[in-house]
């Protein structure tokens, strides 16, 4: 691959490969770097209609703010507002957080209320 070098004779500018943008390079580097296995958190947010939303993230506070802003939050909060984070589990890998999220989403409302009460 040619980068930042002169092209051989006969090849025009169309063949020139542009160096990656800093944003692109950072995304590529992030994909190549091994992720810390215990950086994911599972959370439950109580909504304005007293329902519960369950999700996973690497930063619960940032994600809650995104839910408040509507644009970056889940579609679940269209028509409802997130009130507060009522439950969280830290120290998961991404796969264990996803599995735990699926388990919690299968619980009934009563079981979720019991889970929240035992944690708090």
Task: Describe this structure as you would to a colleague.
By secondary structure, the chain is an alpha+beta fold. It has a domain at 40-119: GIY-YIG endonuclease (3-Layer(aba) Sandwich). It is built from four helices and three strands. The protein has a three-stranded antiparallel β-sheet with strand order 2-1-3, with helices on both faces. The longest helix is centred in the last third of the chain and has 13 residues, at 94-106. It is globular.
Keywords:
single chain; 120 residues; alpha+beta; GIY-YIG endonuclease; 3 strands; globular
What is the secondary structure topology, with strand pairs?
Elements: H1 22-32, E1 40-47, E2 52-57, H2 60-69, E3 82-92, H3 94-106, H4 109-119
CATH superfamily of the domain at 40-119: GIY-YIG endonuclease
Proportion of strand residues: 15-25%
Regions with little confidence, pLDDT below 50 for 5+ residues = 13-18, 24-33
Terminal-residue CA separation: 57 Å
| Helix and strand pattern | HEEHEHH
Count of extended strands: 3
Per CATH, the architecture of the domain at 40-119 is: 3-Layer(aba) Sandwich
How big is the Rg?
A: 22 Å
The helical percent reads: 25-40%
Largest beta-sheet characterization:
3 strands, antiparallel
What would the CATH topology of the domain at 40-119 be? Answer: GIY-YIG endonuclease
Overall morphology: globular
Provide the spatial order of strands within the biggest beta sheet: 2-1-3
| Helix-and-strand structural type | alpha+beta
CATH secondary-structure class of the domain at 40-119: Alpha Beta
With helices defined by DSSP (H or I, 4 residues minimum), what is the helix count? 4
Mean pLDDT: 80
């Amino acid at each position: 691959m040619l980068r930042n070098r002169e092209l051989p004779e006969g090849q025009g500018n169309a063949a020139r490969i542009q160096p990656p943008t800093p944003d692109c390079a950072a995304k590529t580097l992030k994909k190549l770097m091994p992720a810390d296995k215990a950086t994911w958190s599972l959370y439950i947010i109580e909504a304005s209609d007293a329902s519960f939303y369950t999700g996973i993230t690497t930063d619960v506070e940032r994600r809650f703010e995104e839910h408040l802003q509507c644009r970056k939050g889940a579609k679940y909060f269209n028509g409802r507002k997130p009130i507060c984070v009522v439950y969280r589990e830290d120290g998961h890998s991404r796969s264990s957080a996803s599995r735990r999220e699926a388990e919690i989403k299968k619980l009934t409302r009563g079981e979720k209320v019991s889970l929240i009460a035992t944690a708090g």
